[in-house]
Each structure stands twice: as structure tokens, then as C-alpha cells.
Write a structure and sequence with these properties.
The protein is an alpha/beta fold and 520 residues long. 43% of the residues lie in helices and 17% in strands.
């Protein structure tokens, strides 16, 4: 078989995933994670009701390996170690007095293992599984036999029962994935009428992985780089989970994580990068943590939010001193405003409301009763157009109804009483009003401002060009991750996009400052 280049490897894995997923509607992500975990040498637990294809995923996965051996078993409370690990060798027991099992065609001799209803297994089976899951070793009699299990898929329609000693084995399952009924109606209809034999091995031999190939990849995966932005993101996720656990109202939702799981997560991320033909992990790979960190389905949304927010905050960005730039533009704006804006204060006479609802007449002699006029009625009065108006005494008691009209003189009312028109000024108050006038700056000052404007604009444009030309190479390939939904790339790019938007806004602010003095 020819030596594959990095590009060839990614294309090959993509084709393999497409064929494995054919006929498995809305199970693409489960197939992706199952294959990824197998290449990484890790295990995956599928949680879901009966009849959603959990066992089918495992059976399809075994077709990805050219010379692999698979083992599948449905656990029950009556299952015995003989059925899982092989029967005891009678010959060895008789002739050599050794208690050893014949493991060929059983779990220790397989490459791909599927154990359904895992929680129904008895303690003897579970204890043996612990070392197989973690150390890839099976204790057979007095020998520790290395096993070549690439991937272990377990499934159940329930989580480990509480108050039982199942935490150690539950912790061994690195990936935990919920598998539910098909959601999209068109996919449901396609599934029920599809006649394709999904149990048939229709994968071309050149797409399948060989044991020699996987052994070689194991070392190469360990050499994949984990850059600082990924380590920072993982650290932030860990801190946020610890903060979540520390909140008193989350006492029944604690997310329990141990050091071993974090180390296994790094291995999984490295494997994702390797199969994506990269020599280092990127932030898209970090989304795989979501299916590795929850203990109960109720925690899944919290974990998803923590991971997404951590990736967004530590997204790829360029070093741009935005705070310095904002301060310089703010100082520029202040200097311009202080020079071109001249503020002055004038004093004006305004009608003074009485008890908030009335204006008061100033009478030099009392011709009729009433000194208060409702503000609404006063405002409705017109020139040379009489209108019946209510008049009130100082206690706001209605005492008169007379015809009145607006006076040509400001803040004055004309009242008709006994066919005589009387003109009364209204009580006013003096209020100060601030106004601003604009003056053109001196040409020398304006030239100095123009130089500042050009310098700051040039700096922004240089930074925009730098972001465009020197942005991380990873940004060009985020949508092509084999194991992560392309839509997640928007979260990874968010930090960079925020910087770009901030630069655009600052440039617009500069243009407004320049227009303020240049247009005078």
C-alpha cells in the first residue's frame, strides 16, 4: 500500500465517513465520533432508547478496519465472564494446572468491541473491563496480555444506576453521546422506505485502516502540537466548570472530572488534528470536549455553553492595542470640540406653572374672580378667536367661566368681562439656556488636526491590512473539520471579527471628527 500524504489521509477519511454514514439518517456525528475514538484508542458510550441504531453504529464501524476482528455482546444480569472473555482452557487446567481463558474470537482478541446494556454486567465482568478500557491489558490467569482493541463502544438506554460502584467504569468512557429518534420528517420518511442493506460491508478495501497503519499513526498522533490558544481554552473550561460546581444552587448538578479524563481529551484532540491532516490542534477541535465532559444529560447544555464561550474568548486574534487607539481618538475628539464649540448662556422668560396644572394671571385690579387658568386651555387659545375658558381661585377651585383669547403680546391673555376686553400678563420665571455656536479653527490648528487624522487613519488601515494578510492559517480551514459542525467556525472567528468591527467603528468615528472641523 502506498504511503499516504496528509492531504490523501484527510480525503480518505472523509470518503470513509461518507460510506459508513450511508443509510444511517442523522447518525453522521455518532459515526464520526465512533471512528475518531477508535483511531484514538478510546471508548464511547451511546445513551438512547431501544431502536435508534446504537448497535448499528458499532456494526458499521467494524467495516472501517481491513483485518480487524469484532466482538459484540448484549449484557444481562446472567452474563458470565466466559461469554465475554472466553471459556477456561480445560487442557491448560489439566496439563499445566493453569487457569487461563481461550480469548480468540472473544473480547480480548477483538479490535472493535460493542457491549450493549453495559450496566447489566456483573462485578466480575466490570472489574476486568476496567484495565482493558484504561491500560489495554487483560489479566489472563497469571499473565497480563496486551489487547489490541482499537475502540470499545458501549450502549444503554439509561445512565449508571445510583448508589452502585460503577463510577470507575463510567469514568473510562471518554465520549458520551446521546442518540435519539430521527428529528427531521423527510429523513424519517427516507429511512422507513430505504431498502439499502446497512449491515452489508460495501466499503472499498483501500479506504479501510490496517493494523500496521494504525500502529504507525499512534506515534504520529503523539507528535501533534497543542498550541497555547488551545491549552488556554482548556484551562479556562476547567476553571469555569469548577466555578459552576462551587455555586450552592448547583450542588445536585456537579460535573465531576478527574485528571485522567483531561489527558485523554488531549489525545482525542490530537487524533482529530491528525486525521484532518494537520500537525497541530486548532480551536475547532476543542468543540469535541462537549461530548467528553458531562456526567448527566442535564449538564450537557451547561457544558456546551462553557466550551463555546471559552473558545470565543480565546479565539484567534491579532495583537492590536485597541485601548491605546481609543484613548488617542478620544483625546483628538476632545481637542476638536473644545476649539470649535463655543458655549454661551442666555436668560429667557418662561411661564411658571402653578401646582403643575395652571398659569397665574397678574392682576393690578380685580375686575372678576379667578386668577388661575388651566395650562391646556391657555395653550389652545388663538389670536382673535374667543373661547370659553375656566378660571380658578388660588385654591384651584373653579370660580368663573369667561371668554378669552390669545394676546399678540407674549405670555399674555385677553379676557372678556361685561363686554370689556382686559389684557393680563401671566406670571413668569427666568430660566438660563445654554447654546453652542461653532467657529472655524485657525488654519495652523486645522493643519495640525489633519496630520493627526491622517496618522490615526493610516494606523487603522495598516492594522486592517495586517489582520487580512497575516491572520492565522487555521482560519482558512475551520469549516472543513471532519468531526465538528462547520457552523461552529463562527464562534472561533468571533474574537477576530470583534476586533475588525472595533477598527471599523473607530475609523468611522475619526471621519466624523474630521468632518466636524473641515465642514465649518
Amino acid at each position: 500500500m502506498k504511503l499516504l500524504t496528509d492531504i490523501d489521509r484527510k480525503i480518505r477519511v472523509k470518503k470513509l465517513l461518507d460510506v459508513l454514514s450511508s443509510g444511517l439518517y442523522e447518525r453522521e456525528h455518532a459515526i464520526q465520533l465512533a471512528l475518531l475514538s477508535a483511531v484514538a484508542g478510546e471508548s464511547i458510550f451511546l445513551l438512547g432508547p431501544p431502536g435508534v441504531g446504537k448497535s448499528l453504529i458499532a456494526r458499521r464501524l467494524k467495516f472501517a478496519f481491513r483485518d480487524g476482528v469484532s466482538f459484540e455482546y448484549l449484557m444481562s444480569k446472567f452474563s458470565t465472564p466466559d461469554e465475554i472473555f472466553g471459556p477456561v482452557s480445560i487442557k491448560k487446567l489439566k496439563e499445566e494446572d493453569k487457569y487461563e481463558r481461550l480469548t480468540d474470537r472473544y473480547l480480548p482478541g477483538a479490535n472493535i468491541v460493542f457491549l450493549d446494556e453495559i450496566w447489566k454486567a456483573g462485578p466480575a465482568i466490570q472489574n476486568a473491563l476496567l484495565t482493558i478500557l484504561n491500560e489495554k491489558v487483560y489479566r489472563n490467569g497469571d499473565q497480563d496480555i496486551p489487547v489490541k482493541i482499537r475502540g470499545i463502544i458501549t450502549a444503554s438506554n439509561e445512565l449508571p444506576p445510583p448508589n452502585q460502584s460503577l463510577d470507575p467504569i463510567w469514568d473510562r468512557f471518554l465520549i458520551r453521546l446521546q442518540v435519539n429518534n430521527i428529528k427531521r420528517f423527510n429523513n424519517f420518511l427516507s429511512m422507513i422506505v430505504d431498502t439499502e442493506d446497512v449491515y452489508e460491508d460495501n466499503i472499498e478495501a483501500e479506504l479501510k485502516f490496517t493494523e500496521a497503519e494504525l500502529d504507525k499513526w499512534t506515534k504520529a498522533i503523539d507528535e501533534v502540537d497543542v498550541p497555547p490558544e488551545v491549552l488556554n481554552t482548556i484551562q479556562l473550561v476547567k476553571v469555569k466548570i469548577e466555578e459552576f460546581n462551587a455555586r450552592p444552587n448547583n450542588a445536585d448538578k456537579i460535573i465531576r472530572l478527574y485528571d485522567r479524563r483531561w489527558k485523554k481529551i488531549i489525545r482525542l484532540l490530537r487524533t482529530s488534528a491528525f486525521l484532518n491532516s494537520r500537525n497541530k490542534v486548532n480551536l475547532m477541535d476543542c468543540f469535541l470536549m462537549v461530548d467528553c465532559l458531562w456526567n448527566k444529560p442535564v449538564q450537557l447544555e451547561v457544558v456546551r455553553e462553557i466550551v463555546s464561550e471559552s473558545i470565543r474568548k480565546h479565539g484567534y486574534s491579532m495583537v492590536v492595542n485597541l485601548n491605546m487607539l481609543k484613548r488617542e481618538i478620544a483625546d483628538f475628539e476632545k481637542d476638536v470640540n473644545n476649539e470649535i464649540r463655543v458655549k454661551y448662556t442666555i436668560t429667557e422668560e418662561h411661564l411658571m406653572p402653578i401646582q403643575e396644572d395652571y398659569y397665574e394671571l397678574i392682576k393690578d385690579e380685580n375686575k372678576f374672580e379667578g386668577i388661575l387658568v388651566p395650562i391646556k386651555q391657555f395653550q389652545q387659545l388663538k389670536l382673535n378667536e374667543e373661547a370659553v375658558t375656566n378660571f380658578y381661585d388660588e385654591n384651584a377651585k373653579l370660580v368663573n367661566r369667561l371668554k378669552a383669547q390669545k394676546s399678540p403680546k407674549e405670555n399674555t391673555i385677553e379676557v372678556f368681562y361685561n363686554s370689556v376686553r382686559y389684557s393680563y400678563p401671566m406670571k413668569t420665571q427666568k430660566l438660563e439656556k445654554s447654546n453652542t455656536i461653532f467657529k472655524k479653527p485657525h488654519p495652523v490648528v486645522e493643519e495640525h488636526w489633519e496630520e493627526r487624522y491622517r496618522r490615526l487613519t493610516r494606523y487603522i488601515e495598516d492594522q486592517e491590512k495586517n489582520i487580512l494578510e497575516n491572520s492565522p492559517e487555521e482560519l482558512q480551514h475551520l469549516e472543513n473539520n471532519l468531526f465538528v459542525d462547520p457552523s461552529k467556525s463562527d464562534i472561533v472567528k468571533a474574537n477576530m471579527e470583534e476586533v475588525k468591527e472595533a477598527m471599523r467603528q473607530l475609523k468611522l468615528r475619526l471621519e466624523k471628527i474630521q468632518y466636524a472641523y473641515a465642514s465649518l
